[in-house]
Amino acid sequence: MKLCRFTAATNPDVRIGLIANADIVLDLTDAGIRRMQDLIEQRDLAGELGRLSQAGLPAHSLDDVRLLTPVESQEVWAAGVTYLRSKQARMEESEFSATAYDRVYDAARPEIFFKSLPDKVVSPGEAVGIRRDAGWNIPEPELALVISSSGHIVGFTIGNDMSSRDIEGENLLYLPQAKIYAASCAVGPWIVVGPGEDDARQWSIRLEIRRGEDVVFAGDTRAGQIKRRFSELIEYLFRSQRFPNGAVLLTGAGVVPPDSFTLEAGDSVRISISGIGTLENPVAVV
Ligand code: DO4
Ligand code: MG
Prior knowledge:
The chain is of the alpha+beta class and 286 residues long. The protein contains eight helices and 18 strands. It has helices at 36-40, 45-53, 84-93, 98-106, 165-170, 175-179, 197-200, 230-237, and strands at residues 2-8, 11-21, 24-27, 59-61, 65-68, 75-80, 111-116, 128-130, 137-138, 141-147, 153-161, 163-164, 185-192, 204-211, 214-222, 247-250, 268-273, 277-285. The strands form three sheets. Strands 1, 2, 3, 4, 5, 6, 7, 10, 11, 13 and 16 form an eleven-stranded mixed sheet that branches. The protein has a five-stranded mixed sheet with strand order 8-18-17-14-15, with no helix packed on it. Strand 10 (141-147) and strand 11 (153-161) form a beta hairpin. The longest helix is centred in the N-terminal third of the chain and has 10 residues, at 84-93. Magnesium ion (MG) binds next to strand 6.
C-alpha cells in the first residue's frame, strides 16, 4: 500500500491519499484524515490502511492528481558514506578530506547530517536546484526511511540528496553549503507501507539523467549494498534527539556519476527504486 499527499484538479487543498490499486488514489481526507502524521503514528498502520481501502472512499485516477512530497512535518536527515562507492567517490574528490571518508565508513558512529526542513522539500515534478556558485553538481539517489516519533520504520520512499561536489571537495567543513540550499532535497512520490528492512534490501536503485532526448548518465545499485542496518542508523539519529513529528532519513548514495559529469539546468533526474516507484525532477539553477 502507498500513502501520498496530493491536490486534485478541482481543488487546491492538500489531501491525503491511499493508493491500494495501481492507478487509483482513494481520498482519505474524506474519511476525516487531514494529516498524514496521524496515520504514521498508528501502531498497526498496514491494518488501518487495509480497513480504509475497503471503506468505499471517493477515488481519483492517479493521472488526474498532482502528487506532493509525502514529507508533511518531519525534518529530513541523511546518512553518508554508507556504500563503498560513496566512500571511493569522495576520497577521489578530495585529497584534503580523504581520510575522513575512509575513517567514517569503518567507524562505529555513522555520518548523519541534517538535510532539510519539511516545508523546503521539493515535490515530484518540481525543480531541484544546483547552486549558482558551484561548478560540479550531482543528484544522489537514496532509499529514504519514514520513521515514527518512537523511532520505528513506518515505510519507505525515495530521496534525492542534491550535492555540490566541488564545494564539499574543497573542504569538508563546507559540507552544509554543499548539501543544504534552496531545492537541494526532493522526496517522493509516496510512502510504501508494509515491507520491512529485509524486503527493502532486495530492491534495486536506478539513477537516470536525461538531457533533452539523451540519457547522459545511468547507473544502478542495490539497497542491500548499504553497509549498516537501518536500525543502527535510526538508533544514532535518535540519540539525544527528539522527533515529535517523526523523521525522514535518507540512507546514502550508492550510484555516483563519473568525475567528468556535472548536472546542467534543464536536465531531468529520474530515481527509480524497484519496490517503490520513480521520483522525477527537472534541474534549475538556484
Ligand atoms: O560526506 C558526505 C556526504 C555523503 C553522502 O551524502 C552520501 O554518501 O550519500
Ligand atoms: Mg547523500
